[in-house]
Amino acid sequence: MRLLSFLIICQCAIKSLSSHSASNPNVILLMADDLGIGDLGCYGNRTLRTPNIDRLAKEGVTLTQHIAASPLCTPSRAAFLTGRYPIRSGMAAYSRVGVFLFSASSGGLPSEEITFSKLLKQRGYSTALIGKWHLGMNCESSNDFCHHPLSHGFDYFYGLTMTNLRDCKLGQGSVFLKGTEKSIVTSIQIFGITLLSLATVHFIGFLKIIQQPLSYENLTQRLTKEAVQFIGRNTDAPFLLILSYLHVHTALYASKNFIGKSKHGLYGDAVEEMDWSVGRILDVLEKSNLNNKTLVYFTSDQGAHVEEISSSGEVHGGYNGIYKGGKSMNWEGGIRVPGLLLWPGVIQAGTYIDEPTSNMDIFPTVIKLAGAQLPCDRIIDGHDLMPLLQGKIIQSKHEFLFHYCNAYLNAVRWHPRNSESIWKVFFFTPNFNPEDSNGCHDSHVCFCYGSFITRHDPPLLFDLSRDPEEKVPLTPETESRFYEVLHVILRAVDNHTKSLHAVPDQLSWDNLLWKPWLQPCCSSLFQSCYCDYESEENLPEMPFG
């Protein structure tokens, strides 16, 4: 009996040591913007050069059914940080516009939401966000920073609080004058397009706007340099780094070393520049002997924007492979995104996992790796990826995934236990014509209600295991289980709907509109709002957060 007890104690000690060796890793999360799953070599592209991103696949795990929680930037990123469907945090719009358009809006990720950065910071991690935020800034004054990254668990922020808009780059045309509400267009005409150009770069130790308006020249190099320096400052303690690229959202740009070098125009140049940046991050990990101590993850916030055509007629959208649709749509092309994870010695190299996973899964995954506790006072929709990545389980914990078009439940995916089938139903679909470059009703993106959609009764049904391109809807005549599948999915929808609670709408018209008193400005001359400390020589040394 004593021998048995001794062996049990030894076994527990061994498990503890094994678990500890893989705990408290550094975490680097690399997020592209509007990148298509078909833009990367590791997902089948043969015209763009992405050797560094492909290296993540070769030396790590490739997820082939990795799903964004939304096909639009703001809600997708909210879900990524919180592990929750954006409808739960009020980050899914009932209005036509589904993302923040101004840094001087009052909506944003609520302070009540718990991000994985908050929990890792409590565990002693140094935390940084470099690049795009797009989840709000202020609530009532131009310096309350209620929605700012520093209020959501990040020690350090260098980047843009907004997104990269065509309107922010001269000669690229406007996204606002196509298909947006008259109230938005009127506000632009009243307050001047200059205010839309006030994309800012913030260097955070104390809050400081260092460049306004934003200069695209060498921007990716600047973001990469900040990321490399952050890693260098934290080689002896665990850190969380999110490098959130502006590539390849329009307006497109690339530095002189990449302009004209790809086989796919300016879009391809931007992809290849981003790949260079990923290589720099991998290089610094290797030189710092941090490879085996660091989990690296690469993804995109949603699929490629297939409707993007430049003012000169050049295709500025990416490639979603065989998958239908793109950004703003819950067809697979809009939500199936790259999912690459690298952690030498912990997850097996060259592994492909063809199971439904979600960008919401990063939340519980990194929380558990850091030794933190998942919140018990709210529903977390993501699942820990490590058992799947390490082969301890072979089927995803996601039996159902719910796909929202803004705040409207658009489609549902069901992966039955012990079945290869992956059923997907659509309650409505966008009036989208893949053959028409104008896409959805001549608007910049597809919308989610009224004349912009077609409702289906009964819902459209596909089996993605047989028809991943979503070409031919099944019918009761072609699928004997048609009504059985619908019954199970509708029951799941009912249970999911019951789990939702009313929360303030962060993307209401009132929260979306531009408010002059919230406009960040780095100069005393509000109408000009101009500064460029980033380009000045002999900058004073700034403290780190």
Layout of helices and strands, plus pairs?
Blueprint: H1 2-21, E1 26-32, H2 51-59, E2 61-67, H3 73-82, H4 116-122, E3 126-132, E4 156-160, H5 182-191, E5 201-203, E6 209-212, H6 219-233, E7 239-244, H7 265-287, E8 294-300, H8 332-335, E9 336-342, E10 351-358, H9 362-369, H10 386-389, E11 400-405, E12 408-414, E13 423-430, E14 453-463, H11 482-498, H12 509-512, E15 531-532
Parallel strand pairs: 1-7, 1-8, 2-10, 3-4, 3-7
Antiparallel strand pairs: 2-9, 4-5, 5-6, 6-15, 8-9, 11-12, 12-13, 13-14
Description of the molecule:
The protein is an alpha/beta fold. The protein has one domain (24-535): 3-Layer(aba) Sandwich (Alkaline Phosphatase, subunit A). The protein is 24% helix and 17% strand. The protein has twelve helices and 15 strands. The strands form two sheets. The protein has an eleven-stranded mixed β-sheet, sandwiched between helices. A four-stranded antiparallel β-sheet has the order 11-12-13-14, with helices on one face. β11 (400-405) and β12 form a beta hairpin. α6 runs parallel beside α7 (265-287). The longest helix is centred in the middle third of the chain and has 23 residues, at 265-287. The chain is globular. Mean pLDDT is 86; it is low at 1-21, 179-205 and 537-545.
